[in-house]
Automatic annotation (TrEMBL):
Signal peptide: none
Alphabetized Gene3D superfamilies for the sequence: Medium-chain alcohol dehydrogenases, catalytic domain, NAD(P)-binding Rossmann-like Domain
Source organism of the structure: Streptomyces sp. R21
EC number: 1.-.-.-
UniProt GO MF annotations: oxidoreductase activity; zinc ion binding
Domain Enoyl reductase (ER) residue range list: 10-308
Name of the protein described by the UniProt record: NADP-dependent oxidoreductase
Amino acid sequence: MRAIRQLAVGGPEVLELVEVERPSPGPGEVLVRVRAAGVNPADWKIRAGTARRIVEPPFTPGLDLAGVVAEVGAEVTGLRPGDRVYGMVFPPHGAQAEYVTVPADALAPVPPSVDLVQAAALPTAGLTAWQSLVRTAEVRSGQRVLIHAAAGGVGHLAVQIAKAHGAYVIGTARAAKHGFLRDLGADELIDYTVTDFTTAVRDVDIVLDPIADDYGPRSLTVLSPGGLLVDVRGTGPDRTAVRAQAEQQGLRFVEFGVTPSVSDLADIVALAACGGLRVAVEQVLPLADVAKAHELSESGRVRGKIVLEVP
């Protein structure tokens, strides 16, 4: 089969399309014929050796996949060949390949109304937005939610998830992306290139921060008493000072980490199937263009997601 392999830590040039042996599913696993693989910031951070999760080369990168079950291993129930599925995997046996073995309990069915390219864009970003807002923050109707980088992969899904739970949603994004975000349901938008959000918003119940750096301490200043800052950035500065500042001010701070969950994946794709969650795919590239996909993702200017198609 064809697969992307990374033989060394470095820039996008270390990614190669190679021929490797197709794996076989073990007990409790399924073999998935990958049709599409989402690209996330975590992919290039792992490639560059800056992610929390250190992976030693050689390995196949990629966290997000959608495809069709090709074969099931022993002890697998509930899935059979031909089923459309999506979910998360982790290097060294990543998603950017024609076939990948996945634990059966890490995959959720994809309804017929959801395209596999769209499904492949959902796992990591969708789980991050869903779990941080629904599981961690317990977002509810009437709350004011501030989402930084609202047009990004996590951000544009978080806007919709917060709205689906009845929140008033404020987003930070460049002005050129405000129309896109209004269409997704954002109530208020701040162009961070011309306006300091700390001067434009107050009395926020939840802040979702995928940026870190100085956004953490600045975000604390806009929270209402007892408010919550959820930091979803995988890498960045030490958060000890932010945590201490939050405690001193009677605020809550959570450094969030995504966890694969079939039940959450099922809820996310059900919301997409009924039209309550639209995933924006800015570009679909062939698997061989993985280096270009990494470069685009690393630019920080992607609206929504990039997906690699695996025909």
